[in-house]
Protein 1
Amino acid sequence: MLEFARRMRIRGVEVHAILPSFSIPRREVHSDDGIRRHVARVVPLPRFSYPSYVLSSLVAGLPLSRSAYLAHEVYTGVIAALLKLVTGRKTAIYVVDAQTDLKIGRGMWKSRLLIRIGRLIEFLSVRNADLLIALDPSLEPYLRELGAVRIVVVSYGSNLEMFSTGNAERIRERHRLRGMKVVTYAGGMEPHHGAQYLGRAAPIIAEKCPGTKVMFVGDGPVRPEIERTAGTAGIFVGWVPYSDVPDYLAASDVLVIPAAPQSRYVSVITTKVFDYLASGRAVVATDVGGIREAVGEACLIVPPGDPSSLAEAVTVLLNDKNLRVELGARGRRLAKEKFDWNLLTDKLIGALKGLAEAK
């Protein structure tokens, strides 16, 4: 959302960002990009964090009598609804997931009461929003079920400038990968991201394609499981600054999106999908959410949660350089024609402008 906000600001749109104190890197608070940041203080206790965030955000947002309020996620849509109630301003929610489904899938929520409260929050947020902006079309049925009427799809974008180049040699030298084939996953390691299935596929890939390493860039709760199952076929880099990611993608022959969410309404079209496309590398992705519809023409698509199918598709690409080059070129072209951040920012501004001007 900050990427959208920065580009909106360049186009002359006044943007205010209300950010929760528990998750703000100092550089984001003090970044000199023209976005006016307001910190919502959050009580760092499980039972009080969300209520305190809502209250603090409401206090921060009331003085901002702007054209429209845009909430990120359905849970923060409650804040937008309250601001609308007090100020009469139009509200929109940018929806990337069914938040309650996501928390259930992560094992965070097991209480029936919490789940019911979560469903109620989602329902009230969506029903009170004047506009729903969906990350991908696969979320539309979920929003319709909650009573949404006006839905616009605006995906994340590809950072074409940043990912058009990368220092592959630096990474291959650092991790002793010279002369080897490299398969890479870059992203979070939570269950719905599916990296654990690539971990299980890694020994199969290494056996079928000797001289291949599967590299995991990122961190998360399932990393110990992945390290155990990947064994010597895996390389674990851990978290790296976003500015280093282009180098890791450039050093790779094949990139993998192994997502396997438990709910069809947990979107997997994260920024890494579009970064992969922008890098010009061949991609293997699982057939979940809106992946096939959004980027299927530039990827090999396999069933989710199936290490054997994942290993087979990766092996096909490792053994066919022409296919790798072709898919990489398709991905780069798709990123430029359909997922350019500038084009998507213009679409988002158009949607918000129409909302603000609607009677």
Protein 2
Amino acid sequence: MDVAKSADLNEANLRLGLDLHRELVAAEPAKNVVCSPAGIGLAFAMAWAGARTKTAAEMATTLHLPEPESQVPAEAGTLLRSLNAPRQGGSLLRVVNRLFAEKEPEAPFLVDYLDLMRKDFDAPVEFVDFRREPDKSRLHINAWIAKRTEDRIRDLLPENSLDPTTRLVLTNAIYFLGKWRTEFDPKLTAPKDFFVQKDRPTLHPMMLQKATLRHAAVEGAEVLELPYAGDELSMLVILPTAKDGLPVLERSLTATRLGEWLAALRPKAVRVLLPKFEIRYDVTLKRQLEALGMKLAFSQGADFSGLNGHHDLFIDEAFHQTFVKVDESGTEAAAATAVVLSWKSNPRPPQVTEFLVDHPFLFAIRDNRAGAVLFLGRVVDPKAS
């Protein structure tokens, strides 16, 4: 893990996303994986804002928070305003935060913390009854997330994820719907070989397009930018040169290298063949974040006294769910993150360039205006969900 401080919150979130991507891939190397660096980063920045002493320092390192750290909440506010501003070309991007807090905590949440959440993170607080009705509260939070993601993220919090010791759930939800600047013609979509394994192709619907697009040949890979209408958002497709080169590419990818690849992109006449795909991915993040160095926050030694003035809270678990669908017209994507804090009394554990995407690849959906990577994923098998 690169522990150097980042230049801004977007870079911090990207570094965190790359760290998590590697951890998730290591756990399930043959599976499609996708996460939301921006969503996870914002959710944990809200938790970090209530952390103190060693817990805050450890979280800041794992999250790659920029310096001075005192400016992080203000940077989060600037980022949220940029992400939620109206778009050219009809693309829809919605990023929302909310706090769900126990209505009768032993130690009431500090007014300063709640004000900070509302002012900089645009995260109002809603009081619920975790003590008496934890499952009803869980269903209410899930319904709130489903509504904000056009029902693409459902049941983020599974059964028994909340109980009477739950005191606070920090949530972030992202929804994106964008049409390609140049749509693929469905009549040209046809079955072609996709090499899930180097020597074993399988037929999969491949979309075809000829257009002037920004492309770069870099060490070990090719990079293509597919813009959405309005040019304010785009998808980057990062295709390893070798059909079995995805693991090597993933291990070497850094925020700095991605920035260099973006700078190398140049307009070219490109013939693109891209598989249609749809991914649903659901994961808990405690184990991965602990492996990345965020240990105190999940332990009985956690210090979240910035939330309520006491040392009685810790992060019980973090839930993350994503959805990405890519077809001829464009992309629909959604993500939600929930960070659950519980009471410590009862813890739980001109030349035409051919760009044939016929083997495992990476993709990222990026807000070009804000500079934020909204989604980061890999496609190993486009037939798998």
Protein 3
Amino acid sequence: MLEFAGIRRFKTLMDSDFPLSNLNVFSGLNGMGKSSLIQTLLLLRQSYERNTLFNQNQTRNLGLLLQGDYIDLGVGSDVWSMQAEIPNIEFLFKWGENSIPFEFSFEFKQSSNLLPISKMPVSNHIERISLFNKNFQYLAAERIAPQNSYVMSDYHINDLNSIGIRGEYTIHFIAENSLKNIPMLELVHKKAEANTFLANINAWMGEISPGVRINAKVFPQSNIATLAYNFVQGNDVTSEFKPQNVGFGLTYSLPVVVSLLRAKPEDLVIIENPESHLHPAGQSALGNLCALAANNGVQLLIETHSDHFLNGIRVAVKNTIIPPEKVKIFFLHRQEFSPEHSSSVLNPKLDKNGNLDQWPVGFFDEWEKNLEQLL
């Protein structure tokens, strides 16, 4: 598990430390840097996959690739802290309590999308770390939308163990694995009819839209997969509905539920805005599912704007689904009138009753502000 991250001179993170745990939640106003830690991990992942981080033959190290499959951040001038005095970017990561820290340092090159390496950890056994192996899943904020068909990829779901950055292979995965048991039986929903993927996808998606049933089919000859929904209505089941006719939120959240149910202990799962397009009850349910997965060995890094999602986690703590020490909350903010354009990191802490020890200005407090004005 990634225990610690230190970021130096990367975007608005001039000098920021993140003591991490199983479930890590990043929040803050827009443009405050809450995505930046996640972006450093994605940059390392895509550089590793493109062999610009550790060359396969170990003959040369190239650099940090700023444009790739996971993320495109431009060139050096776009990611180097604008008021930094030292012309490099540094990352410090620690995996495991007794492990040696991994130190990465990259030279600043203003107009280059490849930042040369100036300091690098020894790459022995790097493949054991979840960030660099198949125990990794990233879901971007922009995910699959309702449509008539979806792409298939045996390579992604079987060889790479991925449902895609946008969840684009989710439907293919469901169709191929619907009758297999989920890896962690602790995530079996109390209303699930079996321990299988499909039974539990239906049950957890039922927290978002009651009675929903997922129908995923593959057509190998056309290399497409299709998705349809039924709904349990009393003692009957409705006919099939196309994704376009049941609202945006169901299809948009489906990759989130699938990525959590398919995860295993020691996996690293990064999800941006899991709550997008969902009713508050659905957002809270996803918070509860994330807490359950994290308590059973999956490490989660979540970026969110949702107080309902956060409250789902808080309730999970109170209900002893996850202990408070396994939850880390990071609130990034910036002083408007400060001469330095850099972010600070606050760490509101949860107690065993789900209460937070501080509520900084801008930290999920808009409801109280609006209510105060109304009253």
Protein 4
Amino acid sequence: MLEYLFCALRNLGRKKLRTFLTVSGISIGVASVIIIGAIGEGGKTAVSGELDSLGINGLSISARGNADTISPKILYDDVKNCLSIKGVNSAMPIIMQMGTSTIHGKENEALVWGVGADAQKIIALKINHGSMFTQNDVSSHALVCLVDEQYAMATFKRTNITGKTIMLNLGNGYTELKIKGVVATGSSLLYNIAGDYIPYFIYMPYTTAEDIKGQVGYDQIAVKTISDNNIDNVGKNIVKVLNDNNGNQSFIASNMFKQKQKLANLLNIVTLIVSAIGAISMIVAGLGIMTVMTVSVSERTKEIGIKKAIGAKKRIIMIEFLFEALAISIIGGLIGIVFGIGTSVVASKIFAFNFDVKLNSVLISAGFAMLVGVLFGVYPAQKAAMLRPVEALRNE
């Protein structure tokens, strides 16, 4: 086998430029599939983290009014009822309200979240600076808040603005809040692309949000279950208990974990389709291999005739040319892997986005490249093997 490989490399070295161009086609195909796969995996991770940071990872309980109810409300008794259901790990009221914030002389639109002290566990908030507000802050309606990194960078050009004060207006005048911590932004790439259209996030105790809004009640309840396997059953039990205890309104449980899985599956399909488009370039490169090998057979007709005249069998001639096609694929595949991984790493640094290269993506693209090389090398190899010695020797 090694002898065939060395012979193939020697033959390919005779036409360096032609070999280089053919190898480049395979390299570009392999690299494109790896990079596309890395973007897809990184996108799934980023979207999943973004949804987790919004509480989209368990159950979301919301209320809708009946005919005699103008504005349905969720109260803390409903939260306590959720906690009493078997399978519930934790439950937290959530208030969402668009507002206007003013800090350091800058006014910005912000999406205000009223959450509990255990928001880190339920909606996966990551504190980068300062600290999370405590249960005492919730109980005492403390005028404290958390802001995201993008908000800190936009207002003070640095990520740590703990201790600063912010003026917040939710429609009833401005209220002064002290920034207790700075949380990680879910997806920096999302903000890089559409930062002008996405509001900043501000988090505060839900009791404080109620005071600022001037209204009692919550928009929804975020529920984290003990296991992801029984989310639907837990949701049905919660809805039954809440409906039994509230005659004038009904409740709905949305399985946000399932919605996140559906989105992940959709991203998988999109990544697969785009990767398939990238793989077409390898098929085009395979046609290039066939063309180059066919020309090579024509150029080496006399050489093939001499080998057959001294006893070389059809099988030997065919294997020799197949190894040349395979050598092009292997070299191109290796270069493509290095280029694809290297580009993904560099792009991750430049765009602050995780290009997640998976081993299976690398192996599949490399395997497909070798398969293309062998398949498209069969015809010229068979053509060389079928040459008659006498006719081949006459060729000049």
